[in-house]
Every structure is written in structure tokens, then in C-alpha cells.
Amino acid sequence: MRIISALLLAATAGLLAPTASANVDPGQAAPAFTLKDVNGKDISLAQFKGKTVVLEWNNPKCPFIVKHYVSGNMQDLQRSAGKDVVWLAINSTNPKSSDFMSAADLGKWLGEQKSQPTAYLLDPDGKVGQAYGAKTTPHMFVINAQGTVVYDGAIDDKRNARPEDAKTANNFVRAALTDVAAGRAVANATNQPYGCSVKY
């Protein structure tokens, strides 16, 4: 009982921090960040001011990420987003995790998947992931040209790791981008993401 009481006290005191410590809701300003990409180049959100930006939390070793890349779903979504949409994949995996991959290995993986995000960014200390409240891989965000988060949630409505389901799912990110391009409010602006937990 003493051990249980101590754990409860620690949790109440905030010593047992949740996986994602913040939460960015649609309508809020997107937290600013600068991260290095897999080539060692500094990439900041600010440099894409005036453009629509998609953030994709990514971990190649997660079966839910595998689902969307093996099926070609994520690559198709990246291409169909268009040249006016910036696509930033972010990896917040802690270097001590067994899921951690080096920048070189991540770059090689991107090539193997024929994936073409605008940049693949490294967030090894998890600060950007926690600023956004990224919970899963994938966890998707859409930011409009004014720098406001307009979508936060799952990639689609087929909440499983089966590649064959990716193509027939209702894709929430595609729908959000369509709404943004049409100049209207995103109809489904937030929902619960699904996937592997981010390995902070």
C-alpha cells in the first residue's frame, strides 16, 4: 500500500510525466521550431510562413507507419498534397530506444520507400513532439498559411496496421487539405490519433 500511495503521490506531483506533455488544439498557433533534417540542415517552421504545412510524426519501425508506406498510401498523400504544401516528417524517437535510427539509416529508408517529404526532421530530445502533444506514429497535424493548426489527429478512420485497409479508408488529412485549399474551415478538425506510442 505504501508503494502504491507513493506512486500516486508522484503522479499527482507531476513526477510521472505523460508521454506527450502539451496539446495543440485546432485554432491555436503552431509552436515554432527548428530541427536538423537527415542531411544535417537546419529546417525551421518559420521558413514556410505563408504555406500550408503537414506534420507527420514518423517511426519506420512502427507497424502503423509500415502500413501506410508499404501500401504506398503516405507517398500518394505526399504527392497529391501538391507543390504548394510543405510536408515535414518528424522523428521524436529517443536515442536510447530500440526503435532509434541514425540520420543515415533514416535517409536510406526514405529512399527505399520512394518517400518525398519536403524534409525528414530529427527530434531526438522530443521537445518538438511534446510541444505539439504528438502521441502516436503517425500523428498528423495540418497548419494553414497563417500559422494556425487546423487539423490534429489520425491519418484516417481504419485504426489498424493492415496495409490493405489504407487505400479504402476515409483519409482525414486529405479531407483537411481539400478544405484548406478551398478556403473553408476543416470539417473534421480533431480526433484521436492511432498508432504506436511516440518513443520519447
TrEMBL record:
Domain of life of the source: Bacteria
One Pfam family in the UniProt entry: Redoxin
Signal peptide range: 1-22
Residues annotated as domain Thioredoxin: 24-178
Keywords recorded for this protein, A-Z: Signal
Protein name: Thioredoxin family protein
Taxonomic source organism: Piscinibacterium candidicorallinum
